[in-house]
Design a protein that fits this description.
Structural class: alpha/beta
Number of helices: 8
Distance between the termini: 9 Å
Strand order of the largest sheet: 3-2-4-7-1-10-11-14
Largest sheet: 8 strands, mixed
CATH class: Alpha Beta
Helix content: 25-40%
Shape: globular
Number of domains: 1
Length: 273
């Protein structure tokens, strides 16, 4: 029989980017995951645990941190990327340390939209650049992209070797301006593109590549369930660019840890006694 160490090594793990509009139930899906280390960027993000139907999930929460700066000084303390001094880096390191001891199995980052807004504030406050009397926005957005990619690739997603990573984001429908007509009678026409993660900067177009599973979701109020879309398909008024590496069904009627990884759990090796 496989040992306990074999079981932990083979326990199903994956990374999830959960995309939905505000109030569609992203955090309600997070709390169904086991042994959660939760990092939130909005006060009261875990208020969903106060709902009667969610009482059974309260024990899933192991560690809870809110990084909601109220001043420039707090902004620097929480998000300073220089030598990974910001609190967010220390929190992720702590999550990995706890996971290495078996105390944590899920790193939840809720959500990327608020996180990226804080990163923008940090750069515009502490790394503001001016060229020829004008803000050097190109340089600052380049810095933003570098900081964002570094923390996702080198910090958040490297937790994947310990357990599950679940990051949430709001959605935006990006307006793309194209030019139609002839050279003499050209006009700008706004066209609505696909839905993208609502994250400031160019990284929003890279998120689908970085995460193993990109799931768009809606709250089905009539059935009190959270519907998830796991493959590219027509849904939510557009073509949603989802993906999954877990061979999930194209539509999941009720998003939970069990519906995402339950089938993998059933095939995990048994622990020897």
């Amino acid at each position: 029989m496989p040992s306990a160490q074999d079981y932990l090594a083979n326990k199903p793990k994956s990374s999830f980017l959960l995309c939905a509009d505000f109030g569609e139930g992203k955090t309600s899906v997070i709390i169904t995951f086991p042994k959660i280390f939760y990092i939130g960027f909005r006060q009261g993000g875990l208020s969903v645990l106060d709902k009667k139907e969610n009482e059974k999930y309260k024990n899933n929460l192991v560690w809870y941190e809110e990084l909601c700066p109220k001043s420039d000084a707090e902004l620097k303390d929480m998000f300073d990327p220089a030598n990974r001094r910001g609190a967010i880096y220390k929190m992720i390191d702590h999550a990995k340390e706890m996971a290495s001891k078996g105390e944590v199995e899920t790193l939840a980052v809720d959500d990327a939209s608020d996180w990226s807004n804080n990163m923008v504030k940090y750069i515009w406050t502490y790394e503001y650049k001016v060229v020829d009397g004008k803000p050097d926005t190109q340089s600052m957005f380049g810095t933003l992209a570098r900081y964002q990619s570094n923390i996702i690739d080198q910090d958040i997603l490297t937790f994947r070797r310990f357990g599950n990573v679940i990051m949430t984001t709001h959605l935006m429908r990006e307006s793309e301006q194209t030019i139609e007509g002839t050279k003499t009678r050209a006009k700008a026409v706004d066209k609505l593109s696909d839905l993208f993660p609502d994250i400031v900067g160019s990284i929003r177009r890279e998120m689908q590549r970085k995460f193993e599973n990109v799931i768009y979701m809606q709250n089905d109020l009539s059935k009190k369930k959270f519907v998830g879309y796991t493959e590219k398909q027509q849904a939510m008024g557009t073509v949603v660019k989802c993906k999954n590496v877990l061979t999930l069904p194209p539509v999941i009627d009720n998003l939970t840890y069990e519906s995402l990884l339950g089938s993998k759990l059933n095939h995990a090796p048994q622990v020897s006694k």
